[in-house]
Structure formats: C-alpha cells, structure tokens
Amino acid sequence: MVNDDLRAACAEHGLWYPPDPASSHWSTIGGNVATNAGGMCCVKYGVTSDHVLGLPRTAVPEMLARIEKTAARHDVLVANIAHAGDGNLHPLIITPPGDEAARTRAQSAFEDVLDDAIALGGTVTGEHGVGRLLKMRGMNKELGSAVLGMHHAVKAALDPHGSLDPGKVVGRVWSSPSGEGDAPRA
C-alpha cells in the first residue's frame, strides 16, 4: 500500500498515520518497513516500524559504542553521520588515499559494523539499499537464503533478461562455503 493512500484511508476514520517519508506519494509501507523510513515526523512520532513491527531506535547508543570499539580495534577513523531520531546511522570510515593497509582494515571494520547492526536488531540496508558490493554479505546474513530466494524470484519474474539495474545485488546470487554470502556465483 502506498503511504499517501494509507494516510488518506486513516483520515477517513479520524486517524493519522505519522511516518511521512519524502517519497510518500509513491513509496509503499512494505518498503518503509524494510528500510525503516520515517520522514520529518519520525523524531516525535517514530518511524514506520514503530507503527507496524517495532524498532531498535533505543539501540543507537549501544551501536555507537560498538562502532567506537570497532574503530579502535581496527585502527581506523569512523565518523558517525546520522538521523538518529529514526535509528539510521551512517558510519563513514575514513582512510588516507593510497593506503592499502588502511583500506583493508576499513573493510574489516565495516563488516564488523554490519554484524553489530544485525546483532542489535537493525538492518544493513537502512534507507540507502545494498548497492553493488559492500553490503552483500551483511544482507545475506540478515535476510537468509529463503528471503533472498524470494527477492531473486521477483527479480527474475519482472526482469527475465536482466536488463533492469544490471549488476546490482538482487541480480546476483551470492554464497560462500561458510554460507555467509561473500563470494559471487553465476
């Protein structure tokens, strides 16, 4: 159901659905739950999952503490950019250009941050999605093979030739010998 349609249906009964992502005229409740979207009203009234499933916004202090420990353990600098009112954190791992050792440490730190997000009941995708590479292992760990299989089935049904957004995560099947999804396969 589209956000604006739900809001209108609620209004017909004297109710109000507070989450108001900027894309409310076309975004769906399912997408908002999956990405924890909230919009401008989220700080006061909560995000979509507060009204549908429940949300680990209260885990933000613990997550920030874990990110700080991860940064120290991997000897990297992490700047936390966030709109913490809806629980969305955007840790930015900063490394010197051309420092391959720092880049490797940063990648390890990033994986630890994703694992901590999942452990605290959060998501690796937040509001920005998975993209092409960085969050694939985390997404596989968070969603599991059954849900990923569903994503792949929907993608195959809607895009049998693979021409829509080629090379993105849902266009590929990821697995590894450990089952954690860190290596591509055809």
Give the spatial strand order of the biggest sheet: 1-2
Give the amount of beta strand, in percent: 5-15%
Low-confidence stretches: 174-186
- How would a crystallographer describe the biggest sheet? 2 strands, antiparallel
Structure classification: mainly alpha
Secondary-structure element order, N to C = HHHHHEEHHEE
* End-to-end gap: 34 Å
Count of extended strands: 4
**Mean pLDDT value:** 78
Count of helical regions? 7
- The oligomeric state is single chain
Radius of gyration, in Å, reads 18 Å
Question: What general outline do the C-alpha atoms trace?
Answer: globular
Helicity, in percent?
40-55%
Give the tags:
single chain; 186 residues; mainly alpha; two-stranded antiparallel sheet; 10% strand; disordered C terminus
Structure commentary:
The protein contains 7 helices and 4 strands, in the order αααααββααββ. The chain is mainly alpha-helical. The strands form 2 sheets. The chain has a two-stranded antiparallel sheet. It has a two-stranded antiparallel sheet with strand order 3-4. It is globular, with a radius of gyration of 18 Å.
